[in-house]
Amino acid sequence: SAKKAGRNTHSFYMPVMNEDATRRLRTEAELREALRREEFVLHYQPKVSLATGRLAGFEALLRWQHPVRGLVPPLEFIGILEDTGIIIPVGEWIIGQVCRQLLLWEREGAAPVPVAINLSARQFQQADLAQVIERIVGASGANPQLLEFELTESLLMADPESAAATLAAIKRLGMNLSIDDFGTGYSSLAYLKRFPLDTLKIDRAFVRDLPEDGDDAAITQAVISLAHHLSLKVVAEGVETLEQARTLHGYACDQIQGYYASRPLPAAECTALLARGQLIDRALLAAPPVRL
Ligand code: C2E
Ligand code: MG
Ligand code: MG
Ligand code: MG
What we know:
Blueprint: H1 2-6, H2 19-34, E1 40-49, E2 55-66, E3 70-72, H3 78-84, H4 87-107, E4 115-118, H5 121-124, H6 129-140, E5 147-152, H7 153-157, H8 160-172, E6 176-182, H9 189-194, E7 199-202, H10 204-207, H11 214-229, E8 233-236, H12 242-250, E9 255-256, E10 265-266, H13 267-276, H14 282-286
Parallel strand pairs: 2-4, 4-5, 5-6, 6-7, 7-8, 8-9
Antiparallel strand pairs: 1-2, 1-9, 1-10, 2-3
Helix pairs in contact: 4-6, 6-8
The structure holds ligand C2E and magnesium ion (3 copies).
Protein name: EAL domain-containing protein
Keywords: Membrane, Transmembrane, Transmembrane helix
Domain EAL: 24-278
């Protein structure tokens, strides 16, 4: 019983530890080792220009190559990395790894395309984040203009004043900034113009039921129009069908990302896409949305 166990200091907390907590602790210990064991890997998901159908950039997405569990998706461990602060060294590894990848692709003779990196709240709270980024990118020799950072609304709104300062410092390094999952967070449109952003990414929740859902169609068109008036480029996330792509093309959306164009891919598989450039036939995109 708990009372009995209570007399034994070593097992005092055991009765209240459920299976989830135990599993979480084990995962945390494994995550502390994962960086040293080089178990983290980045996959890259293409962004495609709707005007041309060509590859416009990549987004780096973290995976954990677990020795037993296989390839673990980020939603199963990013939270633990955040809560424990392990995201700080892992985040620095991600930035360095993207820089190394940019140089590798360049050496392969590929025309350069920008690569976006997701930043977490914990990373963003670092007062010296811009200096950290500058140090890593500077040491790598990668072109800062090919780097982009994606930040969510909630992350920016947590402390808008200090967020604005950090964003400005990153902009001064020559890098680009995107607002990620737009429309799902706690948004304040007033801040859109105060943050030095380049791109707005519309969350896939608004894309999923296009073009049938009239509300989503209205929201998506309004957000694209707003973004363009603020001189922001627009990327639609989670585009899974040609019909969605055509609809967004009709709304003058700039780029799409999603399974229709490509799933996130290991770096080696991106080489062929970089060489090809053309990912979607332009004529397909320009045609009016199919109505059955
Ligand atoms: P996100 O930055 O919004 O990334 C988009 C997510 O949607 C990715 O999931 C991607 O695989 C998925 N996705 C892309 N196209 C489609 C589609 O057509 N349909 C559907 N249903 N899903 C699609 P992933 O890779 O599992 O990442 C989930 C989230 O984890 C990311 O959302 C981001 O918030 C976070 N994350 C991923 N990598 C990193 C990282 O390196 N650092 C940080 N801090 N967070 C990361
Ligand atoms: Mg993202
Ligand atoms: Mg997103
Ligand atoms: Mg997301």
